[in-house]
Amino acid sequence: xxxxxxxxxxxxxxxxxxxxxLLREFNYSRIGKYPEGQTVYLNAKDEQGRLxxxxxxxxxxxxxxxxxxxxxxEERGKGLGARLLAEGETRAREKGALxxxxxTFEWQAPGFYLKQGYREILKLPNYYQxxxxxxxxxxxx
Length: 141
Fold this sequence. Notes:
The chain is of the alpha+beta class. It has helices at 11-16, 18-31, 80-94, 110-115, and strands at residues 38-45, 51-60, 63-71, 99-105, 119-128, 131-139.
């Protein structure tokens, strides 16, 4: 085993992206080139510029991963979440995404995502405390 030290990566090392580039080069040698990751970041604001909600997603291997979909509590049930999700999916499709995936806790919005065409593929019971975590997917074509 080589003499190696293991320590916390510095912010500069993380921002440089060297580790990700090394992994990509390894992957390219096995499966050929693929597009680098892309982001879809959206905000919803009222007329005064107050943030009402937003969407944060990343695209890798033609998959959109929905990291964050949030709507302020007083704005829920008015269609803003569905609009944000649909716009995020549309922009991801324009960037080459074919499918979407996300994780949601049972106290969050699994029912909402089912209504938006997602389907459950995995449920991890007792993921945190006594709450389950559900992984969901959707075809975007």
